[in-house]
Amino acid sequence: MMTLRQLATERPTMPTRTGWYLADLGEAHGKQELFTRQSPQKLKLLREHALIESAISSNRIEGVEVDKSRIGTLMFGKPTLRDRDEQEVRGYRDALKLIHERGAKLPISEATTKQLHKLCRGEIWDAGAYKEKDVDIIQAYADGRSRVRFKTVPAKQRPKAMAEMVELWQRGVQEKWVHPLVLAAALNLDFLCIHPFRDGNGRASRLLFLLACYHCGIEAGRYISLERIIEDNKERYYEVLEQSSQRWHEGKHDPWPTLNFLLFILTQACKEFEQRVGQLKSPRGEKTALIEEAIARQAGRFSLSDLRSACPGVSVDLIRSVLKRLKGASIECLGRGHTAKWRKTAK
Questions:
Q1: CA distances from residue 288 to 63, 295, 322, 343 in whole angstroms, order as listed
Q2: With contact defined as beta carbons under 8 Å apart, do 140 and 112 qualify?
Q3: Cα gap 292→21, rounded to integer Å
């Protein structure tokens, strides 16, 4: 709550970059209604794809992974879950569905935060409950060394800190201290510094940020995975969190590295949404466009299996057809058979 306290007591001088992001997001918000009037079937494909990417990426950031061949079934079927990892991915999907279905009607409160945490942690004993012991954020190194990256709020003070965080968010929205999206990013930073749960704080924070964006009128996260864009920038994500958490307990921290990072993530999602909507209008078909975009995002060598994971619900035959059409023009094959590797060629 120390970031929200800063915004409540001091008139902030926003960095120039923040103003640029807010201007871009204001423009994106103005276009949002126009984009969402597109064909419901076409937008449904984007929603399903974003749901999958969000559940997979947010868990993968925390080291939770599932068998790629099971992703489609986990997201849209009713399989018997094999292990804890599958349970957590399915739970994150359920939390996303709750946010997408209720949007800004779902209040930002302690009860909602606990509900989102309970869903994304699955059937574990302390899901949805604040931790009872002090647990700091530890960074482990490959050589076995470790260090305390951040000392979280003591367990006894956590309920009070969470209550104050929610109260400050509500006041900030009503009293308009700063742009509401800056408040949404500040809420995310304060939640991570309070670190109220034993585990799953990162995932709960990303769900809370998505919900706060709905309250601010930005719904790009319904169609584009914010979590996937964060994962693509994971090293920077951890870097800015460490920068902004220094002296947080004293209220003398610099929140802008993290606030600007989150605004950047949201800006990228809005731009990608606009691009994808434009692609979906193409007569070549939404699934073909989805495959081509997945290919464009690949770094280095990739396989048919990688594209199947990136395009759940798209047939293998269609992926092969697109690969065959693009072969020699923008991509090349480096082997034979279904395990062959592909790579993009220089334009």
A1: 31, 11, 7, 18
A2: no
A3: 28
Of 5, 9, 31, 60, nearest to 203 (Cα)?
Answer: 60
Q: Is residue 147 part of a domain?
A: yes
Task: Report helix, strand or coil for 343.
Answer: strand
Coil vs helix vs strand at 148: strand
Residues 6+ apart with CB under 8 A from 99: 106, 116, 207, 210, 211, 214
Please tell me the predicted confidence (pLDDT) of residue 317. Answer: 86
Domain count, the chain: 2
Per-residue tokens: 106: 């779902």
CATH number for the domain harbouring residue 146:
1.10.3290.10
Residue 208 within any structural domain of the chain? yes
Question: What's the pLDDT at 315?
Answer: 79
Low-confidence ranges of the chain (pLDDT < 50): 281-283
Residue 213 and residue 168 in one domain:
yes
DSSP secondary structure of 77-123: S-PPP-SHHHHHHHHHHHHHHHHHHHGGGS--SHHHHHHHHHHHH-S
Contact 183, 4 (CB under 8 A): yes
Query: Is 242 in the same domain as 330?
Result: no
Answer yes or no: do 295 and 272 share one domain.
no
CA atoms within 13 A on the CB side of 71: 28
What does the pLDDT read at residue 100? 95
| 41 phi, psi to nearest 5 deg | -65, -40
Q: What is the pLDDT at residue 347?
A: 58
What 3-state DSSP class applies to 240? helix
Cβ neighbours around 29 below 10 Å, total: 16
Q: Helix (H, G, I), strand (E, B), or coil: what is residue 342?
A: strand
- What is the H or E stretch that residue 331 is in? strand 331-333
Give the 3-state DSSP-derived string for 244-272, with helices as H, strands as E and coil as C. HHCCHHHCCCCCHHHHHHHHHHHHHHHHH
Task: Quickly count: other Cβ atoms within 10 Å of residue 229's Cβ.
Answer: 21
Is residue 69 in a domain?
A: yes
The domain boundary residue, chosen from 261, 280, 299: 280
Asked, for residue 26, whether it belongs to a domain, the answer is no
Domain range for 70: 2-12+39-280
